[in-house]
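Incident log, support desk, overnight shift.

02:14 A customer reports that sequence design results differ from what the structure should imply. Their input is reproduced verbatim below. On-call engineer (initials T.W.) acknowledged and began investigating.
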């Protein structure tokens, strides 16, 4: 896979059924979208990867119709049968890991190594929830007052609307589909218009694994707001699970409130990365490179602002900067570590943030080189002399830029770290574990990586505090997001 043209020409995963990978999928059938087609672009070149059917509200209603019709049968399907479907799909994803990775790279721009990692991570959600599907749980016991017994059980919420982002097109789909299907819900899914092909490819694998008609329905569209609003207004839709910006999440929460729809929201982040005076700098640099530059910094969990103790600031900056300068940036071929940003607009936004930071006094201390010519590239950059209240510190950068702030006082550090409306992820690197734990427990974040630059794991509850979202994905908690609790009180007489 070292020829970019070879990658782009072999990622569409066309099957014997023709163009189904680019159509709307409703009720077990592939069909053209009512609004024609839209282009999916290759961020590495700006060229067209594929054209995809453009769904409308009418397609969305048809998807809900299919999900409603399929729900009684799927909810009544034995948990073991639902489990085996997910397990088979996990195995099919591993079988097709190279094609899926190439597909992610083609529509998202992600480096092949990152894309392969995403495929493995995404597939693991199907395996994890295959194992959880048979353990929905319950309870039984006598009432304290005597005379009755209480039986507690769980049942699927119902039809679930799933809305996924472009930055992890495989993992965000499986992280929602896995628990929804395990719980017995049927689904309508809208993938991001920038990256719909990966979701459609995974849908084909679910079908190959034996997915019943109507259980999963996928509607790609360029007009996300009308489609999702139509789903939220439909009384048959009982659940929405959304991953995206806090701004859009607020809008959807207001709409969901009109019908009191069950909601899960994984929203924006502004992750701090704290390095203490006693930190092992080898560990700090390795963790920082992973936390900042995985996916080109286009992740809600990405380290967004670095707080380095002044005693080690110079040494860390030199070593970290040297690693950044060595990063190989380019199209998704072997050897390149960082790909392009998702769009020209993304490049403009990150460039503008950096330009304003420099005007405010920041220094570009280290920078990698980017390829000449087309593509949506931004050079991985380290900024020093950044003020603690700088705009770039308070903004979610969503790009390969690392602004460094120095600190000396722990109490002041924690005030800076928690001075944000976001609370998704954080990172702490410290030599003494007790110090790291003390800091981590005082950070307002749903997930904290300690001496490592990765917080995501299918077996762990992914989610944030404050305006970074509601609910959790992954782990046992992820399954519970798609279940309702019901109890029976039983008259128990001799």
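02:41 Re-run completed on a clean worker. Output:
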């Amino acid at each position: 896979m070292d020829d970019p043209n070879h990658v782009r020409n072999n990622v569409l995963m066309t099957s014997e059924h023709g163009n189904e990978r680019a159509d709307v999928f409703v009720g077990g059938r592939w069909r053209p979208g009512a609004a024609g087609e839209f282009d999916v672009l290759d961020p590495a070149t700006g060229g067209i990867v594929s054209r995809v059917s453009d769904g409308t509200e009418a397609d969305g209603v048809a998807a809900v119709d299919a999900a409603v019709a399929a729900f009684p049968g799927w909810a009544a399907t034995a948990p073991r049968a639902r489990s085996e479907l997910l397990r088979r799909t996990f195995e099919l994803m591993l079988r097709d890991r190279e094609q899926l990775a190439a597909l992610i790279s083609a529509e998202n721009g992600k480096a092949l190594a990152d894309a392969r990692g995403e495929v493995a991570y995404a597939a693991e959600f199907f395996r994890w929830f295959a194992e959880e599907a048979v353990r929905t749980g319950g309870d039984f016991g006598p009432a304290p007052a005597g005379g009755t017994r209480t039986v507690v059980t769980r049942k699927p919420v119902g039809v679930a609307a799933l809305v996924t982002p472009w930055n992890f097109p495989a993992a965000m789909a499986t992280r929602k589909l896995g628990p929804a299907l395990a719980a017995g819900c049927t689904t309508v899914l809208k993938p991001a218009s920038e990256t719909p092909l990966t979701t459609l490819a995974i849908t084909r694998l679910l079908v190959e694994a034996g997915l019943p008609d109507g259980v999963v329905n996928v509607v790609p569209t360029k007009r996300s707001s009308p489609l999702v609003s139509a789903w939220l207004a439909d009384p048959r839709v009982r659940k929405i699970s959304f991953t995206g910006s806090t701004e859009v999440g607020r809008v959807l929460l207001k709409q969901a409130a009109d019908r009191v729809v069950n909601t899960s929201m994984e929203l924006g982040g502004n992750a701090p990365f704290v390095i203490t005076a006693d930190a092992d700098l080898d560990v700090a640099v390795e963790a920082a490179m992973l936390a900042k530059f995985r996916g080109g910094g286009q992740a809600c969990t990405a380290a967004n602002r670095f707080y380095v103790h002044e005693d080690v600031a110079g040494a860390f900056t030199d070593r970290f900067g040297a690693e950044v300068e060595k990063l190989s940036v380019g199209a998704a071929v072997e050897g390149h570590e960082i790909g392009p940003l998702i769009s020209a607009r993304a490049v403009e936004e990150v460039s503008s943030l950096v330009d304003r930071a420099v005007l405010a006094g920041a220094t570009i201390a280290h920078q990698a080189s980017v390829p000449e010519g087309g593509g949506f590239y931004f050079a991985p950059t380290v900024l020093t002399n950044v003020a603690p209240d700088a705009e770039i510190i308070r903004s979610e950068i969503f790009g390969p830029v690392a602004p460094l702030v120095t600190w000396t006082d722990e109490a002041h550090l924690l005030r800076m770290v928690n001075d944000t409306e976001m609370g998704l992820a954080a990172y702490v690197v410290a030599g003494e574990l007790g110090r790291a734990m003390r800091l981590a427990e005082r950070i307002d974040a749903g997930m904290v990586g300690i001496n490592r630059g990765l917080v995501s794991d299918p077996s762990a509850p992914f989610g944030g505090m404050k305006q970074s979202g509601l609910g959790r994905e992954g782990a046992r908690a992820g399954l519970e997001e798609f279940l309702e609790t019901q109890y029976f009180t039983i008259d128990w007489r001799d």
